[in-house]
Each structure stands twice: as C-alpha cells, then as structure tokens.
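Entry 14. Ran structure prediction on the chain below.
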Amino acid sequence: MRALIVLDMQKHILSQKNFKEEKDNIKKVIDICKSKNDKVIFVRHIEADNDSPLNESSNRSEIHEEFAEDYDEIIEKTTPSAFYKTNLDNILKESNVDEVVIVGFNTEFCCMFTAIVAFERGYKVTFIEDATGTINNSEIYDMEDLDIKDLVGTVLNWSKTVEVLYVDEFTENEKNK
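Output, structure tokens:
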C-alpha cells in the first residue's frame, strides 16, 4: 500500500510567498492519491517557543484552510523529519504501507529529511519535486541563481534511493497503472 505524506501545509508557511503553482501541484497529487485509495497523512510542524508563529497554540500553525479536508490523519513534528519522535512509522506499518510519496514544505529541510529517513526505514520513496516549495531563496543561502527544488531533486535522484518525479510524470505513471 502507498501513503502520501504532505508536509507543513500551514497558514504561516503558505503566507510567506505566492505558492500558487506549488499548491496546485500538491492538490493534483492529493487528488490522484485519494483516487487510488492511498492514505493521505498531513504533517504539521510545531515549535515550543511561544513567540513562534508555529507554536502549537497559534492559529498560524494550523493546516491552511485550502487543505483542511484533504487528509486522513495528521501528525505533529518538532524537527525536519516527520519520523523523529512521532507516530508516523507506526501509522504506516499498521496500514501496511511500503511506499510513500513526499510533497509539501520546505523542500530542503522537511521534505528532504523525511524522504531520506523514509528510505532508511525501508519504504520505497517518491519525491515530487515541483510539488514541494520553500520560503527560502538563493539570497538566504548566498548562492546566486540557486534553484533549491532542483538542487534537492538532483541530489535525491543521484542517490538512486529516492525516485524523483515532476507532477506530470507522476500523473502519467498513475494513468498507466
């Protein structure tokens, strides 16, 4: 069985930039996975700092209203990995999941870490590069012309452990199944 892991679709994160393309792509992947009866798990990042917009009591840490009805389960995490000190692995095992699809935010942290840890835990992993997004940019990393999504997708693809696709490729693969 397969599960879709959707990371950090939270009000605060989605308010940082115009993420229309990423949100549309994530919605497409959600719709495909739901049509295949895949388990859809949303992951919410929370922080203990009361001043953080991602503090669990802040409404800015809640799942964005555009996606509020799209999940079967929601888990909370406090680190970039959706597996670290959460019940995600148990949920996947109890549902006989052996394959995960990764989408969401932030590409170079939560999405990448979750994909790597999922592989380490024995799951077949598909990372949908253009269904991830980040609030960061090349200026943050002081690397002119850095395309963060492309960099992460390339690194994961070169690993030969994580399948990296674009939404169109994922859609086409699903039509052929």
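The mean pLDDT is 91. Will compare against last week's run tomorrow.
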